[in-house]
Design goal:
It is built from three helices and no strands. By secondary structure, the protein is mainly α.
């Protein structure tokens, strides 16, 4: 969790590709482009992050 959001996104991408059958998890060009767009946004400081606790509380509220 000490990694930046961009570093975590890159790591997640690399982890998916490292699975036993990476072909089964290949990202589409649109997905790759979205990841690149998000990483640029984070690196530029334009991304607004939220904590996991905030997101989980929002999800829980929707299902109550």
């Amino acid at each position: 969790m000490a990694l930046s959001a961009g570093e975590r996104a890159s790591l997640a991408h690399d982890l998916i590709l490292s699975l036993e059958d990476p072909e089964a998890y290949e990202l589409s060009p649109d997905q790759e482009a979205e990841i690149r767009r998000c990483v640029r946004k984070v690196k530029s400081g334009k991304a607004i992050g939220r904590t996991a606790a905030e997101i989980l509380a929002e999800i829980e509220a929707k299902f109550k």
